[in-house]
Amino acid sequence: MSQKIDGGITASTQVRPVATPTKAAPAGGPEARPVEAADSVRLTGEATSLQALQRELSTAPAIDTARVQAVREALENGSYRIDPDAIAKRMLDQDEQLRA
Questions:
Q1: Secondary structure (DSSP) of 19-50
Q2: What is the pTM of this model?
Q3: For residue range 59-99, what is the model confidence (pLDDT) as tens digits?
Q4: Kind and range of the H or E element at 1?
Q5: Cβ–Cβ contacts within 10 Å for residue 11, how many?
């Protein structure tokens, strides 16, 4: 016996869920039972630390307004100094980290 598969599924086709038996079906007939949830997840210490960090960061403000104000005042009074060597070093350090 053969059937042609044409890939055409019409809107009138209904899909019904099929329960997977957890144990062998009794001899009287195939009785489908719902699958019992036996899966469990155990997080590593690193994953737990990342979750704690995520919670901490989600409650922290996105902008440090005190730091913004300090930089603004330093720019206005001319005391803000730019160190191009320090900026270049940090850029190279970041590039090295991204390569790893």
A1: PPPSSPPPTT-----PPP--------HHHHHH
A2: 0.35
A3: 888 899 999 999 999 999 999 999 999 999 999 999 999 99
A4: none
A5: 5
